[in-house]
Amino acid sequence: MDKFVITGGHRLTGEVTVSGAKNAVVAILPATLLAEGVCRIENIPNISDVSAMLKILKTMGAEIKFINKTTLEIDTSHITSYVVEHELTKQLRASYYLIGALIGRFHRADVAMPGGCYLGLRPIDQHIKGFEALGAEVTMEENAMVSVKADKLLGNAVYLDVVSVGATMNVMLAAVKAKGLTIIENAAKEPHIVDLANFLNTMGADVRGAGTDVIKIRGVESMHGCEYSIIPDQIEAGTYMVAAAATRGDVLVKNVIPKHLESITAKLVEAGATVEEYDEAVRVKMDKAPTHCNIKTMPHPGFPTDMQPQFATLLCLAEGTSFVSESVWDNRFRYTEQLQRMGASIHVNGKTAVIEGNPEGLMGAPIRADDLRAGAAMLIAAMAATGVSELEEIHHIERGYENVVDKLRSLGAQIERRTFPDDEEHAQRNAG
Ligand code: EPZ
Fold first, then answer.
1. Neighbour tally for 150: CB within 10 Å
2. Are 44 and 70 in contact (CB under 8 A)?
């Protein structure tokens, strides 16, 4: 079993460069199914969710060539299959974008229900509502296969009952080649929605209004290859910003779009950090205990749910009581148990966590990454704590953070990735 072993108590200082956005690239790679030609994509993050998506596309018949570490060329023009089995989709949530892209390309898709982080129920009813509005027939087959067929795809109005990132992007993917005008109302506005729209437009689509809650898509006959660069990862950037504050450090976070970080910056300032904004970087400094504050997660431009566990960890180190409300997911507080093991006073009451902060309150402990962002929170907690922590289930973290050990070490963190014998084997050896 691989773990991170972290000795806490070291301030993070220096510079770190943010990689391409996970939640953009996992939609942009499936979107290449719509191109009749080669797409050259830059700023690809080296994370396991990308490897999983590339493996799916390769298995389907895509030709993929890495030009350098962060740039690839992908040609999907020889793909003839619209079937994706569970063995492949179970690895990542974003495999649901294959449904929208395959409908756009073949008017057919048989894709097994996706895996991904457990955050409570993760329904796809709004994706299905959108596909049906475009004229598709959607059925759930055996083995949780979502089977979609459409004789014709016709543009239509789609009102999303909940603001959903996945449904907004999936309907965009299905609609770019539908005949006529599709209007998505109550659309999500996250930076990755705008990035997908820009990518589709670079391939010849006609998508307008991305970044607002009404997106208009006029269908086109065909789309071509293109060159594109993925936006920087807002959540990776936010995680390093909060890590800097939690360790009372001074870190320049480079390759960011400061506008995407506004809600995180505002809360860090409220918690007592200094945040300086540059064109493509932000510098976060903290030289005292954080001040308590409250956060409530909301769709963009509100405070992102994907930063909730990391920020709650910072508030465990604050003077006073903070309230953290989760309004996007039903079950995103599992990590609080791990923080309690480290000595934090954090208690969940329904959709709110109440934190009695203590600036010296975290102690190293054996802990676990319950999911991707919970894992990021554990890293922050372990770096801010006194003593040594051993963090398990780190594969969750590697789904979304490129080179996290090297990046943190370059900032002065004491962190190592170590392989331990299996617990059972270990116990047997000890018994023997
Ligand atoms: C995306 O998930 C992200 N994942 C998540 O990031 C992120 O937490 C989430 O958006 C919200 O920002 C990817 O982009 C791959 P939603 P997604 O559809 O699209 C409900 C991370 O850590 N809903 O916006 O699956 C749903 O239950 C991950 O990087 C429906 O009811 O989220 C939730 O309460 C974790 N019906 C809310 O909407 C639907 O059909 C928002 O979900 C779809 C969603």
1. 21
2. yes
Whole-structure pTM value:
0.96
Q: Is 167 in the pocket of ligand 1 (CB under 6 A)?
A: yes
398: burial class by Cβ within 10 Å (0-12, 13-18, 19+)?
Answer: buried
Rounded Cα gap, residues 264 and 256, in angstroms? 13
Q: Could you tell me how many residues make up the chain?
A: 432
Mean pLDDT, range 289-302, rounded to an integer = 98
Helices 372-384 & 308-315, crossing angle to 10 degrees? 20
- pLDDT, tens digit, 9 for 90 and up, residues 315-370: 999 999 999 999 999 889 999 999 999 999 999 999 999 999 999 989 999 999 99
pLDDT surpasses 60 at 119: no
Q: Relative to the CA of 162, which ligand 1 atom is closest?
A: 38
pLDDT digits (tens, 9 = 90+) for 297-310: 999 999 999 999 99
Residue 167 C-alpha to ligand 1 middle, in angstroms?
Answer: 9
Question: Among 400, 429, 428, 394, which Cα is nearest to 6's?
Answer: 394
Q: What is the largest CA-CA distance in the chain?
A: 72
State the pLDDT at residue 422. Answer: 67
Q: Is the CB of 182 under 6 A from ligand 1?
A: no
Ligand 1 close to Cβ of residue 346 (< 6 A)? no
CB-based burial label for 229 (10 Å; 0-12, 13-18, 19+): middle
Q: How far is CA 259 from CA 36, 105, 262, 281, in A?
A: 34, 34, 5, 11
Active-site residue 117, yes or no? yes
Taking the centre of ligand 1 as the mean of its atom positions, its distance from the CA of residue 93, in whole angstroms, is 9
Q: If residue 322 lies in a helix (H) or strand (E), which one and from where to where?
A: strand 320-325
| Pair of tokens at residue 255 | 């390759």
Radius of gyration of the chain (CA): 22
Surface-to-core class of residue 351, CB atoms within 10 Å of its CB (0-12 exposed, 13-18 middle, 19+ buried):
middle
Query: How far is Cα 128 from Cα 138, in angstroms, rounded to an integer?
Result: 7
What's the CA-to-centroid distance between 164 and ligand 1, angstroms?
A: 6
